[in-house]
Design goal:
By secondary structure, the protein is of the alpha/beta class. The chain has 19 helices and 12 strands. Helix 5 links the parallel strand 4 and strand 5. The longest helix is centred in the C-terminal third of the chain and has 58 residues. The strands form 3 sheets. Strands 1, 2, 3, 8 and 11 form a 5-stranded parallel beta sheet that branches. Strands 4-5-7-6-12 form a 5-stranded mixed beta sheet. It has 2 domains: 307 residues, Alpha-Beta Barrel (7-stranded beta/alpha barrel); 69 residues.
Length: 469
C-alpha cells in the first residue's frame, strides 16, 4: 500500500521598516510592527486556524488514520507568540493526537547551511529545543530551508543525529527515476532521503484555482484517483507545500477548504493509499538506491537551485557582509543583538533582492514588499551597517577598534567622575554660602539691638553700666 506523506511548511519573516541612511547609528529598532502584526493576523485568521481545525476534525473522524507533518520556523513561532498565541495552542492540540509530526529546520529559515557547519548546528538545535518545549516532540527528520540539499549537506545532517531528510525531486537530479521511492544519501547511506513530488504539490499550490487549467476543477476524488493510479511498485508520495495554500494562495472561495476536508476520506477510500509521517516511511521502507547531488538544489523556480537567493551581485554582497560577522557573534552575549542576528539571516531578505523578472517573476513580486530589488538591498545594508556598529561596541573587530572602545569607556568613566565632583562642589558651595549667611546674621544682631535701644531713648552703654554696678 502506498504511503501519502503530507508536509506543510509554515514560515513568516520579521519584515523591516524603511530604514534610511540617517537612521544608522541613531535608531537600533528595525522592524515594521504594523506590517508584521497585520500579515500574521490575516494569515492566522484566513489560513492557519481554519486549516488546523479541519485537520483536527479529520484526525478524530478517521480515528488516527489521517496523519500530517508540519515544518514551523522559529521566526513564525516568535510571531505567533507576539500576535496570535492561539495558533500555538491549536498546534499543541494537533500534536496531542499523536498523528502529527514536526520536522527539524534552521531557527531563522536561513542560508546558514551554505556557510558554516557550527553555526548551522547551533541554529538547528535552537529550533528543535523550541519545538520540543512547545509540542513535546524532538524532531527526527530534517527539512532544510527551501528544501536545500546536497550530498555534503546530507552527510552533515546525518552526523548531527537525523535519520532522514526531505528535498526536492528535481528532474535534473533524478533523471528517469521517480520521486515516489525512498532513497539514501550518496556519501552517507545511513541518511534516508525523501523526494518531493512537485507535480502533486504544485497542483495544489499553483494550479488549483486556475480556470484555464485543463484539469480544473480539482476535486479530492480526482486527486486521490491520480495517486492510486500510479505504478503499483511506487511506495511513497511526498506532498510538500506552503500552509498558506489553504486560504491565502488559494482563497476560501476557490473551494480549497472543502478539498482539504474531503481529501482524507477520498485517499483512504481507494484502498490503495494510506497516510504516513516521514518517520513512519523511514521506519517501514528500504531505500531503492542512492541519490547523488553534487551541487545544492532547492524547490525554488524552474532552475531548482539557489539562484532565487544568491543569483546576483546584490544578494551575494549582502550574504557575504552578513556572514563576515559570524566569528564575532560567537562572543556576543547581548540577547537583543543575538535575536536581531537571527532575523537578519532569514532567507526572505535575500529573496526580495532577486532580479528574476521573467520565468518566475510573478512569484517573486507576490512575496516582495519592496518596489525594486535595489530598494530591498539598500534597506537591508543600512540595517546591517547599524547592526555592525552595535556589534563593534560590544565585540571590537580589530585592535584599533578595541583601543577606540576602551578609550570611549575611559571617557565615559571620567565623565561620570567629573559629574559627581561637580555635584559635590555645588553642594559644598551651597553649604558655605549658608554658613556665611548665618555668620553675617549673627554679627548684625548686636547692631540691630543697639539701634532699637537708641530709638527707644536708652543709652548705648546700658550694658556696661549694669556690669559696673
Amino acid at each position: 500500500m502506498k504511503s501519502v506523506c503530507l508536509n506543510f511548511q509554515i514560515h513568516q519573516p520579521f519584515r523591516y521598516r524603511k530604514y534610511r541612511f540617517f537612521d544608522i547609528g541613531n535608531d537600533a529598532y528595525y522592524y515594521d510592527d504594523f506590517a508584521n502584526e497585520t500579515i500574521m493576523r490575516k494569515a492566522a485568521d484566513q489560513s492557519y486556524l481554519p486549516a488546523n481545525k479541519i485537520i483536527l476534525d479529520q484526525i478524530h473522524k478517521h480515528k488516527g488514520k489521517f496523519k500530517v507533518t508540519y515544518s514551523l520556523s522559529g521566526t513564525v513561532i516568535d510571531q505567533f507568540k507576539l500576535y496570535a498565541p492561539e495558533v500555538i495552542d491549536s498546534f499543541a492540540e494537533l500534536a496531542a493526537t499523536g498523528c502529527v509530526e514536526f520536522l527539524s529546520e534552521t531557527y531563522a529559515n536561513s542560508l546558514v547551511s551554505m556557510t558554516d557547519g557550527t553555526l548551522f548546528e547551533s541554529q538547528v538545535r535552537a529550533h528543535d529545543d523550541l519545538i520540543e518545549a512547545l509540542f513535546g516532540q524532538r524532531p527526527k527528520v530534517f527539512r532544510n530551508t527551501e528544501l536545500i540539499y546536497s550530498d555534503e549537506l546530507g552527510d552533515l545532517v546525518q552526523k548531527m543525529g537525523f535519520e532522514a531528510m526531505i528535498t526536492e525531486g528535481a528532474k535534473h537530479v533524478l533523471g528517469w527515476k521517480s520521486p515516489n521511492y525512498l532513497y539514501c544519501n550518496g556519501l552517507n547511506p545511513r541518511l534516508k532521503v525523501l523526494m518531493r513530488n512537485f507535480r502533486f504539490s504544485d497542483d495544489l499550490s499553483f494550479r488549483f484555482a486556475n480556470k484555464a487549467w485543463n484539469e480544473y476543477p480539482l476535486t479530492a476524488e480526482k486527486y486521490a484517483g491520480w495517486m492510486a493510479s500510479l505504478p503499483q511498485e511506487e511506495e511513497v508520495i511526498n506532498v510538500f507545500i506552503n500552509y498558506e495554500t489553504f486560504g491565502q494562495l488559494q482563497p476560501k472561495s476557490s473551494g480549497i477548504f472543502d478539498f482539504l476536508k474531503n481529501l482524507p476520506g477520498a485517499i483512504l477510500k481507494t484502498g490503495k493509499l494510506q497516510f504516513s509521517t516521514p518517520s513512519e516511511v523511514v521506519a517501514t521502507l528500504q531505500p531503492v538506491s542512492a541519490v547523488h547531488v553534487l551541487y545544492p538544489i532547492s524547490w525554488a523556480d524552474e532552475e531548482r537551485d539557489l539562484s532565487a537567493w544568491l543569483g546576483n551581485e546584490l544578494q551575494k554582497e549582502a550574504f557575504d557582509k552578513l556572514y563576515q560577522l559570524k566569528e564575532r557573534m560567537e562572543f556576543c552575549k547581548d540577547t537583543i543583538l543575538l535575536k536581531d542576528w537571527d532575523y537578519l539571516q532569514t532567507i526572505d531578505h535575500f529573496y526580495y533582492m532577486c532580479t528574476k523578472f521573467f520565468s518566475d517573476g510573478e512569484v517573486h513580486k507576490y512575496f516582495n514588499p519592496y518596489s525594486t530589488p535595489y530598494e530591498a538591498f539598500i534597506n537591508y545594508m543600512n540595517i546591517l551597517s547599524d547592526f555592525k556598529i552595535r556589534l563593534n561596541a560590544l565585540v571590537p573587530e580589530s585592535a584599533k577598534d578595541l583601543e577606540i572602545t576602551n578609550l570611549k569607556e575611559l571617557v565615559k568613566a571620567k565623565s561620570k567622575k567629573l559629574d559627581f565632583a561637580e555635584k559635590e562642589l555645588k553642594q559644598v558651595k551651597k553649604e558655605m554660602s549658608a554658613v556665611k549667611l548665618s555668620q553675617s546674621k549673627m554679627a548684625a544682631t548686636p547692631k540691630v539691638e543697639a539701634v532699637k535701644r537708641v530709638k527707644k531713648g536708652e543709652p548705648k552703654t546700658t550694658e556696661k553700666k549694669e556690669k559696673n554696678d
